[in-house]
Amino acid sequence: MTKLKGFAGKILHIDLNNLTHHVLPTQDYYEWGGGHGFGAKLFWDLSEDIEVVTDGRDPRNVITIAGSPFSGTNVPSAGGRCEVTNMSVGLIPRNRFTRSNFGGHFSSMMKHAGWDAVTVTGKAPYPVYIDVRNDHVMIRDASHLWGKDTHETQQIIQEDVASVEVASGWNGQLDGNSFGRTTQKASVLTIGPAGENQSALGCLIHGAGNAAGQGGNGAVFGSKNLKAISFIGTGAVDIADPEALIKARFKTRDFYAADIDKSAEFAFPSLGGKPEAITFSTMPTGHRVSSCHGCVNGCKQRNAIGYGNEVTCQTSVWYLGAVRSYKFGGNAKLSLAKTGVELTEDSLYAGDLANKLGINTYPIMGLIPWLQKMHAKGELGSGKEIHSELPYERLGTREFADQFCQAIATGTDIGAYFINGIVPGIQQLGHSADVDNGTLHYPYYGMPEHGYDPRAELEWGYATLMTDRDMNDHGLNWIYWTVNLAKLEGIDFPIPAEVLASRFVEKMAPYVQADEVSAMDYASHNMYSEVLARQVQWINHYGRFWKNSALMCDFRWPDCVNTHREDLRGATGNDEVGEHVWWNAVTGEGISYVDGIERGRRIFNLDNAIWALQGRHRDDAKFADYIYDHKMTHNKLPTYLWPATNGAGQWDYREMMGRQHSREGVEEWKSHYYRAEGWDTATGWPTRSLLEGMNMKDVADRLEQAGKLGNEEV
To answer: What count of other Cβ atoms lies within 10 Å of the Cβ of residue 265?
Structure first.
């Protein structure tokens, strides 16, 4: 294959069993794009025991941290993302190959050092960290770092890397061949105590708060005795057509991006969103927006109060319900109906604490109200049925947050029950009924609800069932935020429901035709339709390439609706500023928007082959019982409005709360989806004709040998 621009050309393979490293040529992996595609293919190539490894803490697990051709470039909201792939920890009914993703500057610095990805196998005999300075790779003793939090660890490594001073403000980097200079700090990805103790709740942290945690990535590092990976480089990214890149960036700025010098009453928050911290609460005075490398819409913040830096999105509110409960009464469930500054500083403190300890805050947020309830019932506390010495009467204070997070990170006190995940811990305590009845909102695979109930937001639930984890794809989800926040604030939402639905559907090629607006109809009479299966197919395939492999930011892409355009049509798929325009400008290829989605289909089917080898079956793809047995009654916002039709076919933003799924309906939808993918409808496994049609005969052969190849449709 012709050498492509944008890639550094090398993948770093670290063998911790032997404390050695070697180089894999990126050119062998071009067809997988980068990011997740690289991770899936490397997992396939390097995992000799896919069928028998059942826990991500097994030394045979392969973990890959990968960038893309966009890493280190100024492609809008795509230059700083990084994908993590590995065998999971803490999922049910079984662990599986999974993914996570984080932002910041790690992938760009890895690229500047001359590397496209780093993949790690084996287990070190003692704690180590990986120190990469351009071409110079060192596996170093990390005994002095073990036990330190994520912020301390990064600072110590950065100070060591910067110890060669060339002149004022410059750091020298000797890579074995030449002497480079940079004013930048090393980019470090590390674990805290939660990962060191191999907790399923452990995550990876880069910078103050860029985290990858869903799937137990921190536990994987800890199980390998790997404390951190550090990159610093003095190189550059070779761009195929810099003029085309800059031209597209200017056009994006002029016609699609927010103008910070102008105020707009309303902006759809994908590519056209305003740069502002996503904290869901009133920020303290004295903060400024920060962003990942190359982003045009910074969503994080730096605070004058000295803590809570880069505490954003869910991490900023995991403790908010508890803070409100302690100060004003009521239960500790999250609600965003009222978020005053008197609540924010304590919430940011708790978010900062979790980031330092390397804790994934999504699972623990749902646990907090349950602990409050069990303590109120007299079943949790010192000498109680569930013994714990934590001060539950202080739940909602900084004191409790300190002790609770320490327990979770170290696997002590209440944290001992949850070292393998929240749902396994609840089951161990004999309270499985609280998962089944919805007291605890963990609707799929033992993972917490992301905040978007699958009874209401259909694509979120369905796409999760068809993949490995909570899908965490906000492409359609911005509808929830814009429509329902407008309702909460008394603003008339400016886009008619049918128009909004049409703009999304226009981008769903090749699976949904532009006139099939019913693909966005979330009415109860359309919940299990075939067209909704094709909508989710587009989400999964678009996401696997353009988001997870090319690494375009989930918050900004796809840009289906853009309120800076009179016609409301976003940049996605556009031949002047669409995803493929950036890819071609950087790499020199000539692919189309749909070509990228087809690559996503191939990557997604390799994923499914891996899952099949690991034991996945159609029967695994189901929601927790409460999703079928109980109506949805709670949401973090007062409403859950979504585009939908009534019985007469009239469009409006209609309420989704108050409904439930049926088991028969979900099974019907799954059959639609499996047929759309070309999978065996009885098992969910890929077929030989499907895999060979995508040039994956070797994958089909291995599945057949394992007895996991799907039957062809007659």
So the answer is: 8
Of the candidates 494, 439, 446, the one whose C-alpha atom is nearest the C-alpha of residue 469 is: 446
- How many Å apart are CA 302 and CA 284, to the nearest integer? 11
Q: What is the pLDDT of residues 122-143, one digit of tens each?
A: 999 999 999 999 999 999 999 9
Question: Residue 393 contacts by C-beta under 8 Å, 6 or more apart in sequence?
Answer: 375
- The DSSP letter of residue 520 is G
| Nearest Cα to Cα of residue 652 among 502, 518, 498 | 498
Cα gap 268→356, rounded to integer Å: 33
Instruction: Determine the Cα–Cα distance for residues 595 and 510; give it in Å rounded to an integer.
Output: 10
Asked whether the beta carbons of 669 and 623 are under 8 A apart, the reply is: no
Domain segments of the chain as ranges? 10-232, 275-407, 458-681
What is the CB neighbour count within 10 angstroms for residue 158?
18
Q: Supply the Cα-derived Rg of the chain in whole angstroms.
A: 24
Q: Which of 33, 184, 44, 127 lies closest to 607 in space, CA to CA? A: 44
Q: What is the pLDDT of residue 342?
A: 67
Q: Which H or E element spans position 87?
A: strand 82-87
d(CA 556, CA 631): 32
**Tens-digit pLDDT profile for residues 251-303:** 999 999 887 776 556 677 888 888 888 887 777 777 888 889 988 888 888 88
Tens digits of per-residue pLDDT, 474-499?
Answer: 999 999 999 999 998 888 888 999 99
CA atoms within 13 A on the CB side of 689: 8
CATH match of 10-232 with 3.40.190.10: no
Three-state secondary structure call for residue 330: coil
Percent of the chain with pLDDT strictly greater than 70 = 96
pTM: 0.96
> From CA 287, how far away is CA 562, in angstroms rounded?
27
Is the CB of residue 80 less than 8 Å from the CB of residue 104?
Answer: yes
Residue with more model confidence, 261 or 660: 660
Q: Tens digit of pLDDT for each residue in 9-46?
A: 999 999 999 999 999 999 999 999 999 999 999 999 99
Cβ neighbourhood burial of 123 (10 Å; 0-12, 13-18, 19+) = middle
Neighbours of 200 (CB within 10 A): 29
Helix ranges restricted to H, 165-224: 193-196, 217-223
Q: CA-CA distance, 455 to 458, in Å (whole number)?
A: 6
CA pseudo-torsion sign 710, 612, 670, 98: negative
Amino acid sitting at position 18: N
Q: Could you tell me the two tokens for 510?
A: 């090749």
pLDDT band at 360; cut points 50, 70, 90: very high
CA atoms within a 13 Å half-sphere pointing along the CA-CB vector of 268: 31
Q: Say which range, 176-185, 391-400, 621-630, 671-680, has the weakest mean pLDDT.
A: 176-185
Q: Looking at this protein, which amino acid is placed at residue 344?
A: T
Helices then strands, counting H and E runs in the chain, come out as 22, 21
Q: Give 341's pLDDT tier (boundaries 50, 70, 90).
A: low
How does strand 386-387 pair with strand 380-381? parallel
Q: 228-243: b or e for each residue (b if 16 or more CB lie within 10 Å)? A: bbbbbbbbebbbbeee
pLDDT tens for 609-648 read 999 999 999 999 999 999 999 999 989 899 999 999 999 9
Angle between helices 593-613 and 530-542 (to 10 degrees): 100
Cα separation, 637 vs 618, in Å, equals 33
Q: Residue 677: is its pLDDT beyond 60?
A: yes
Count other Cβ atoms within 10 Å, centred on residue 513.
14
Q: Which pLDDT does position 491 carry in this prediction?
A: 87
Give the right CATH number for 458-681 from 1.10.3470, 3.40.720, 1.10.1200, 1.10.599.
1.10.599
Task: Look at strands 226-232 and 651-655 and give their pairing.
Answer: unpaired
DSSP 408-440: HHHT-GGGGGGTT-HHHHHHHTT-THHHHTTSS
